[in-house]
Structure formats: structure tokens, C-alpha cells
Amino acid sequence: MTNLILKAIDERRTTNLFDPSYALDDARIVELVRLATKAPTSFNLQNWRFIAVRTPDRKAELRAVAWDQVKITDSAVTFIVVGQMADHRTLAERLAPLVDAGIMSPPMVGGWEGAAASLYDGQPWRQRDEAVRSAIFGATTLIYAAQALGLGSAPMIGFDPEAVSRHFELGEHEIPVLLLSVGRATDENWPQKPRRPLQQVLDLV
Ligand SMILES: Cc1cc2nc3c(=O)[nH]c(=O)nc-3n(C[C@H](O)[C@H](O)[C@H](O)COP(=O)(O)O)c2cc1C
């Protein structure tokens, strides 16, 4: 496959075993998150936050509330991918750069605010769904950014969300959606796992 994006999608697999001697400098962590934030979000809400856990002490603290998963201390960094409950009142600020750049007009911003309010205002389940959707788009984009930089990654739901929120001081409107470890994969990792037959998952209608 010659197209590098298609090749990355076709070849991705979760890394279970990381080289514990491999570190990532902060500039590369920042670059990974910069790329992750290119992911789409509803109304461009960007209702996410990425906490990069990369010091030995904080890694150990996270591992202790994440099923003791060794990946957290062996990888170079584990991102706590945080989704923020969707809130239409944040939109004016989030869309202001689009207005400044001449992409959107101020009346259009008002229209989007009204649409977002009709979707989310007073609807906590929808606010939460959007937090999870945004965080997963961000995490997925980060996975492929890491792969493009030659790094392996491991998404994880095996953690205590209340404890993670407490230890890493998440706000009341914030949800720790996913942990994502990133680092150098060792040679002993499993090959890619086969997928269900397409006829079981695809309906052409
Ligand atoms: C939402 C989510 C949560 C996961 N949680 C864990 C986890 O806590 N621990 C773990 O070892 N793997 C975890 N995985 C990895 C899956 O087991 C893995 O993605 C799956 O077996 C498919 O393998 P692949 O990613 O190599 O294609 C998780 C994956 C996803 C998408």
C-alpha cells in the first residue's frame, strides 16, 4: 500500500509491551497533542483536555488506580484523555478565532450557539455523549499521529474513573474518557488481530 495514511490505518495494532528505557521529550508530547487537536468536534467545541503523565511518580500514581497496568509505567507517556460536558456557552470563545480569520460571520456564530443550546442545554446525557465523542476523536487522532512518528500506543478503559479524577484534579464537568499510553513498542508484541468478516458489520442499503 503506497498511501501512508491508508497504510497506517491498515497496520495499526495496540502495543502491550513498551520499552521502559525509551523517553519522549516534552516537545514531542506537545506535537502529538497539537496533532490530536486537529480532530473534529461538534460545532468545533473542542471540549477536551489531554493530561500527559510522564514523570515516574505521577505514572506510579496513575498505575495504582488503573488496574496496575504495567504499560503506564513502561511507556514514555500516558495521556488521560478528558472529555468536557458540552456547553453551548463556551462556543462564542471557541468560534471567535474563526470570526477573526473571516471564516464565520458574527450572526452565524449566534446561529450555531442557538443550535448547540437546543441540543445540549439541560440535557446532561447529550452533554456527556458529546464529551465522550470528542475525547475519542482526539484519542484516535493521537494514536495515528504517534504511529506516524514511529511510536506504539495503547488505549485503556481499565481504570477507576473517580480515583483518576481525584488524583489528577479533574473538574466537575470533566470525564476521564480514556487512558492512552504512547512509547516505543518492543519486538515481542502480538501481531495485528484478525477482524470480523465485513458481511457481519457492513450493511449496504
Ligand atoms: C476503549 C478501549 C479500551 C481498552 N482498554 C484496554 C485496557 O484497559 N487494557 C488493555 O490491555 N487493552 C485495552 N484495550 C485494547 C484492546 O484490547 C485492543 O484494542 C483490542 O484487543 C483490539 O486489538 P488491536 O487494537 O491491536 O487491534 C482497549 C481498547 C479500547 C478501544
TrEMBL record:
GO MF entries: oxidoreductase activity
Keywords (A to Z) from UniProt: Oxidoreductase
InterPro entries: Nitroreductase (IPR029479), Nitroreductase-like (IPR000415)
Gene3D superfamilies reported in the protein's UniProt record: NADH Oxidase
Keyword check for Magnesium: no
Domain Nitroreductase: 9-184
Family: Belongs to the nitroreductase family.
Protein name, as recorded: Nitroreductase family protein
Source organism of this protein record: Endobacterium cereale
Lineage of origin: Bacteria, Pseudomonadati, Pseudomonadota, Alphaproteobacteria, Hyphomicrobiales
